[in-house]
Amino acid sequence: MPEVEKITPYGGDAPKEQQVEQMFDSIAPAYDFMNRAMTLGIDRLWRRKAVGMLRADKPEMVLDVATGTGDLAILLARKLPQARITGVDLSSGMIKVGQEKIAAKGLSNRISLQVGDCLSLPFDDGTFDCVTVAYGVRNFSDLEAGYLEMHRVMRPGGKLCVIELSTPRNRIVKPLYNLYTKHIIPLVGRMVSKDTRAYSYLPESIAAVPQRESMCELMRRAGFKEAHFRSMTFGVCTIYIGSV
C-alpha cells in the first residue's frame, strides 16, 4: 500500500474518501483563490502544458476525474474544440462551484459535472478517448484501484494524463519548498479557508504520494502502456502520461 493511502485530512477511523469529501466541501469557496496563491499562478501553466500534450490525439470524449471546481475541464473545452468533457468528483461543494463557473463561461453545453466516486466510476467500459486527473490521485484511498477504474472506462488507444504535485530533488530548491509548503501554506490556508487541517494535509499527501518512476510503475500495473513523466518547475509538479 502506498504511504499516501494512509494519510487522511482529519485522522481518526473514518474512511479516507469520506474525510476527503468533507475537506473539499469545507474549502470549496476558497479553493480557487488558494490554488492561485499556493502556486503563484503557475498551476495554470502546468494545466496548459498537460492539455498541449493531448491536443494531437483530438479526443472527442474526455473524462476529468477529481474535477474539483472544473479548471481543467474548462481548459480542455477551450483547447479541444471537438471534445465533450465529463467531470466527476466526490465533493458536491466543489461540483457546485464548478457548475457556476462553467455556466458563467457559457460552456454548459460542452461540459457536464457530476458527483461520483473516482474508485467506482458510473460509466460503461470503453466510454472515453481520454482521462485526465489534476492534483487528485493523492486523495484516492486506493491508487491502484483508481487507475484500474480509469483504465476500464477508456477506449483502446486512449490516453491518460495525470498532473500531480511532487517533491523537488534539487538541493537548493528543496529547503525553500519545504519551508513554503509546511509552514506558509498551512498558515495562509487556515486564515482563508478556516479549515485548520486541510492545508496541513496538502504537504503531507504530496510527500507521501508515489512520484516519478514509482508512479509510472503503478500506472503500468493497472494496464497503462508507455507510462512516462515530465517534471515541471524544478520538480514541484509532475505530468504523467499513459496509454491503453
What does the main sheet amount to? 7 strands, mixed
Q: How helix-rich are the residues, as a percent range?
A: 40-55%
Strand order of the largest sheet: 3-2-1-4-5-7-6
Order of helices and strands: HHEHEHEEHEHHHEE
**Poorly predicted sequence stretches spanning 5 or more consecutive residues:** none
Structural class: alpha/beta
- Arithmetic mean pLDDT: 93
Shape: globular
Explain briefly what this protein structure is.
44% of the residues lie in helices and 20% in strands. The chain contains eight helices and seven strands; from the N terminus they run H-H-E-H-E-H-E-E-H-E-H-H-H-E-E. The longest helix is centred in the first third of the chain and has 24 residues.
Structure description:
This protein is an alpha/beta fold and 244 residues long. Helices cover 44% and strands 20% of the residues. It has helices at residues 16-39, 42-52, 71-79, 92-104, 143-152, 173-193, 198-208, 213-221, and strands at residues 61-65, 84-89, 111-115, 128-134, 154-165, 225-232, 237-243. Strands 3-2-1-4-5-7-6 form a seven-stranded mixed beta sheet, with helices on both faces.
